[in-house]
Amino acid sequence: MIYGKKRRGMAIPVLLLSTLFVLASCGREQAEIETVQIQNEPRQVKSEVLNLPKLTSVQLDDHSLQVVATTSIIGDVVANVGGENIELLTLMKAGQDPHNFDPGTAELTEVTEADVIFVNGWDLEEGLADDLAIITDNIPIVAVGANIEPLYFKNDVGKFDKGEYGERHERGPVDPHTWLAVPNVVQWVENVEKILSDLDVDSAEVFKRNAQAYVAELEEVDSYVREQVERVPVNKRVLVTNHGAFSYLAQEYGFSIAGTVIPSSSTLAEPSASDLFELIKLMEAESVCTIFSENTNGDVLAQTVAAELHACEEVQVLPLYSGSLGPPGSGGDSYIGMMMANVDTIVRGLE
């Protein structure tokens, strides 16, 4: 997508077991997500907050600032701040999973002409990070997630500690999915405005006005999300999701995460039969009958789990937008649209 001018113990159920035979080829990288207690704040630990680099203005001559964004969500936020005063190349199209995106030669060639590249900052773009490090050399790579206090995954996998942070064992990697809480994207906007203004001083006032207008829209969306969540009884604000992507949403808006189909921060990981069987038992024990899948991944595993939830009269598998925007006209084709669609889906699934 290019904005602006175009330029460069128990028996395992049979259905579950048969599905898992197909999954055996990949190695597993697992990290349980820290679940969120509605009443309490997470325990404070040493922070790994990212910082913005100090940049100086670039010589633009008759050209606009050349900007690259990795994901469609980052691209949408950058486009709202930069507007017509930048030329923006967004590497990932709507629906592409940032965990396994593999750029083509043409895309990487265009990247080398950039004045700045906006990335997530915490290894979200697993397949892209090495390529960018090799080809960008003197091009600044900026983390949109700078100045955000991160959440972490646990390394003790396979045990979902519903409703509590509990004592940390060895702390796992940072959860990179910061955008699923709207206040974090307000921080993204501030970061993007600062960087664009440093690089193109003459357009700083335009970037400031754009950022202020966009933040006002984001604040309205944040209020909408909170109002909709109030429709769900507190004891029903329990999420089971496809993978560990929704801890920021849970912490910000008062949900707990009971478990995930893929017990990892990455969609590249593979669950074992015992992982899924434990999730089935947990959902039945907690009377959870809704699984939230994601627009960037298939729902085969979620449907497999759903088919084994015999204690539920009806099981819903509902898609959420997570790592990518939706296609044009989907309702989730902007960050604002995806967040409103997500909360509407969650409320429908839990009411």
Q: Counting H and I runs of at least 4 residues, what is the number of helices?
A: 10
Order of strands, main sheet, comes to 1-4-3-5-6
As residue ranges, the low-confidence spans are: 1-46, 156-169
Spell out the CATH superfamily of the largest domain. Answer: Nitrogenase molybdenum iron protein domain
What is the number of E strands? Answer: 12
Assign the structural class, choosing from mainly alpha, mainly beta, alpha/beta, alpha+beta, or little secondary structure.
alpha/beta
Mean pLDDT: 78
What is the CATH third-level topology name of the largest domain? Answer: Rossmann fold
CATH class of the largest domain: Alpha Beta
CATH architecture of the largest domain: 3-Layer(aba) Sandwich
Order of helices and strands: EHEEHEHEHEEEHHEHEHEHEH
Terminal CA distance reads 37 Å
* Total domain units: 2
Please describe the biggest sheet, giving its number of strands, its sense, and whether it closes into a barrel.
5 strands, mixed
Which percent band covers the strand fraction? 5-15%
Cα gyration radius (Å): 21 Å
Outline, from the CA principal axes?
globular
Bin the helical content.
25-40%
